[in-house]
Amino acid sequence: MTNSSYLKSGSDKIAYHKTEGKTPGIIFLGGFRSDMTGVKAMALEAFCKERSHAFVRFDYEGHGQSSRAFEDCTLGRWRDDALQVLTKLTEGPQILVGSSMGGWLALLLAIAKPRRVAGIVGIAAAPDFTETLLWEKLTPKQQKELQTKGKVMVPSDFGEPYAITRQFIEEAREHLLLHQEIPVNCPVRLLHGMKDEDVPWEVSFSINEKLASQDVKTILVENGDHRLSEPADIEKILRIVGKMLDISGRG
């Protein structure tokens, strides 16, 4: 595997891999506590190389090979990381493929830079998950601990417990989307597994209902889980991304 490049800002650095190619390019936005070496990111990279489209995968700060500690980061910082990738590493229209939290960030990028975002593919997209899937699922004791101590440790299905900070929860409230119309007008495809135990598939329908775009489709995967990383899932994702490229008229 080739070494990562780094997008630097002062002492901070964002690790990334960039594939040169034609536009629209594709940017993969990973999920909460994931990194850029996952199955979906690597499959998309190979797909883009095959079709000669530009592609970028990267690690948010506090993730993977990028700088900072995870618990020192906020959703707004990760949005800013993604904005830096979009504006400094790519040119022309981009299709954003966002997995879980990455789907939330993709929507925020499309709001911030509508002329640069040609389309969005959400994979178990999870806007507002800090409120509905983190805060609300904490016990009253954990909520009190978070408020008084500023941090609480929560268990993980994929390793050691990790810290959720009060700053993270409170800052994320500045970026909530599902309480109003989402001013995104590009084509959007929302893929969601019906056996997702982390983000209910109904969330994708909530996004669909709130989007201003008139070109939105929600695709349910009957036996799909949250990660949607099985071979059949990857094939479906790549097919949807390919159609999104075709919609742009340049695929």
Please give a structural write-up.
The protein has 251 residues and is of the alpha/beta class. It has one domain: Rossmann fold. It is 36% helix and 26% strand. The strands form two sheets. Strands 1-2-4-3-5-6-9-10 form an eight-stranded mixed sheet, sandwiched between helices. Helix 2 (75-89) crosses helix 3. The longest helix has 17 residues, at 231-247. The chain is globular, with a radius of gyration of 17 Å. The model has no long low-confidence stretch (mean pLDDT 95).
Throw out a few tags for this protein.
8 helices; Rossmann fold; 10 strands; eight-stranded mixed β-sheet; two-stranded antiparallel sheet; alpha/beta
